[in-house]
């Protein structure tokens, strides 16, 4: 995540210097994508750790709770990035194309 953050910030500085318009929105989207990728990697790491290290019922329940929490966070972040519910993205894209 730290490398992704550095890349996003470098790109933001480049965009501000060369384009200057709509750079903040691109920064928000790119940061959101980096955070989503980090959450997905953490979920996979937790699944692998629970399978290889500790296979008790309590470990599986804790893993389930962690996955649910991170999935809700990912869902909320995706809604914040795109500005619409995931099942409405196709319809919103069509509306934008019709308006143009």
TrEMBL record:
From which domain of life does this come?
Bacteria
Q: Mention any Pfam family matching this sequence.
A: DUF1622
Provide the protein name.
Answer: DUF1622 domain-containing protein
What organism does the UniProt record list as the source?
Kribbella capetownensis
